[in-house]
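Researcher: Structure for this, please.
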Amino acid sequence: MALSEFQLIREYFAAGAGRDASVRLGIGDDCAILAPPPGELVMSLDTLVAGVHFPLDTAAADIGHKALAVNLSDLAAMGARPQWFMLGLTLPEVNESWLRGFCDGMFTLAQQFQISLIGGDTTRGPLNIGVQISGVVPAGQALRRDGAQVGDDIYVSGQPGWAAAGLQIVQQRLQLDDAQLRARCLQALNRPQPRLALGQALRGLATSAIDVSDGLAADLGHILEASGVGAVIEWDFLPVEVLRAAIGEQAYALALHGGDDYELCFTAPSQLRVELEDLFEQFDCGARRIGHIESEPGLRVRRDGAISPYQMKGYEHFVG
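Model: Predicted structure, token format:
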């Protein structure tokens, strides 16, 4: 006998929701009741659509992990500490095996970052997952996109391009002979690791930040537009050595335009380089300086000593 909507909620979501002292009333009523801790609330919402944000045959546990991870990455970009999330889940049918996997992936990550599911909605239809997330940041200390200053260094964490390579592997558009690298690219695609600790450590140091979801060039472009500045990327500074050794020059396109990385791109004053290098080593985040902010609008690249304009393109849902 198929589960009803309310049985599904009780069995799969209420049982694993978790709760801290700030949750006065969680799943099971018309609304949640919360007692927000001191600071400013930071909120975001992302929707994942089957066949758009993940291949249709993606493992349920990977979908659950990613649905929460992409939202946690937004909080990381603001320097916030995660607190609560809500889930809107549209299912074509009640598949209990799929639900167990989905909840395992989602709640394992929720427990890692001590964030509570406080409510949501389930309905029938094509597979869609919407997560609304809330976090807390000390008053006036949130990282934003609009603070980059002329002379700032530009940094990016991790290995941009690996997730895009993972997608091309799944789509059979890319063949990697290195089995270990292949597995790491698929892990980057299916199990992104939000840089929450790095984001919180950057409060008071970074002048601007954004998470890289639509491609490094495009997301850096959002910082430039919001801050009213331009930038130069040093081609030789981009963290593509491992991928380039495997697939050649294509590594640069994947790193700059591929998206789905959920790494942090941020700016900071050049006098903080030593302090930041120590910070990066502490968090083992692979962050690297890749360029600097200039007053002239637009994005440029320095390659082989020559500077040329560079297109800030990335993934867009409504552009063919």
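Researcher: Any notable elements?
Model: The chain has two domains: 5-137, 153-309. DSSP finds ten helices and 13 strands in the chain.
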